[in-house]
Amino acid sequence: MSLSQDIKRKTAELGFDLSGVTDAAPIDAEQAKAFARWLEAGFAGDMGYMGRNLQKRLSPATLLEGAQSVIVVGLNYTPPKLLEGHTSATPTGKVANYALYEDYHGFVKRRLRDLVASLESLIDVEFKFKICVDSAPLAERALAARAGLGFVGRNHMLINPELGCQIFLGEIVTSLKLEPDEPIAADCSDCRKCMDACPTGALRGDGQFDARRCVNYLTIEHKGPIGPELAAKIADRLFGCDECVLVCPYQKDAPACTNEQFKFHDDRGNLDLKEILNMDAEMFGATFGDSPIKRVGLEGLKRNARICLANEERRC
Ligand code: B12
């Protein structure tokens, strides 16, 4: 069995749904230009970190000296269907699917460390590695597409034709030379459902993604007040948004996450807005300490809850 096959077997044993290998070459020149245009247009909003370490982001080999390959893994986070049909007497706000699970950063990183440990026991040569999940300056979706995990769709998500869009990504950049996988042949064809579904027009007609308008950015990354036009469009979305993902035809029959160790909270899909407004720091930490929701902080979550409540009052 080749080392690449061993890696695939081990990643499946570790509970990942997808894995692939690409070389550590810089990302495609057209994509690098698209990234520079995105920054220049100011579409990153106040995510200043997106403009830092640009060379590293565009070239994995600058992230780790001697890097030759990138192992990319995918973890399916499509939730079970039990969340549909929610009703409540008190006003509630919606939480995006990715935040119904424990924080994926720690989960994926721990599993990738296990993968490195099993590679170390498999091969005699010493190798260097760097584990990346989200926060490292690495163009994760472009690399995942190159490693054959799926393709980048009009909703800007990495889409796998069988698993849909709700897939977390993680990488091991390594000095090991591994057999690369081939990209897959699939695309969005003429489908534009995600662009029509985006409540704020973040998915622009020219194919660019204006993060400053994305409800994920506004309710999670953006600090400070949100202007009235966008606040109204946030509707009852308390934390994040899934519209461009859920309308994707590839998502329609996507199977739910089967990884039982990846903790899922079935009570987090709709949160009581008044309870959130009454929370103190201790309660916030105790409730959301293991959740991606902690990123927004208590004051940020309360800002979002006030917006949802005001929208609810306007609707009645
Ligand atoms: C900044 C960021 C955000 C920002 C900006 C999003 C954006 N579209 O850029 C905000 C806060 C809005 C956000 C939201 C979300 N994010 Co986010 N985010 C990131 C981060 C840190 C960087 C993304 C980036 O580089 N953006 C810059 C733009 C220009 O890049 P891009 O649109 O991805 O395009 C690049 C490639 O896709 C490629 N490309 C573009 N078009 C095409 C076309 C083809 C044919 C090909 C081959 C390639 C290609 O070239 C571009 C330049 O590199 C990554 C982690 C990472 N380090 O990569 C996670 C990441 C992209 N996010 C992720 C997730 C899950 C989300 C959310 C679903 C939930 C959430 N709130 O986090 C939403 C989805 C919104 C959406 N439709 O994109 C996952 C995506 C997994 C997937 N299946 O794609 C990532 C990879 C994190 C992870 N490790 O799992 N995110």
Notes on the protein architecture:
With 316 residues, the protein is α+β, with helices and mostly antiparallel strands. The chain has two domains: 150 residues, no CATH class; 123 residues, no CATH class. It contains twelve helices and nine strands. The longest helix has 19 residues. The chain is globular, with a radius of gyration of 20 Å. The site of cobalamin (B12) has 36 residues, from helix 2, helix 5, strand 5, strand 7 and helix 7.
Strand percentage lies at 5-15%
Number of domains: 2
Computed Rg: 20 Å
Order of helices and strands: HEHHEEHEHEEEHHHEHEHHH
Helix content: 25-40%
Oligomer: single chain
Q: How much is the average pLDDT?
A: 96
Question: If helices are DSSP runs of H or I spanning 4 or more residues, what is the number of helices?
Answer: 12
Main sheet specs: 4 strands, antiparallel
Separation of the first and last Cα atoms? 64 Å
Bound molecules: cobalamin
Shape: globular
How many strand units? Answer: 9
Widest sheet, order of strands: 1-2-7-4
Unreliably modeled segments:
none
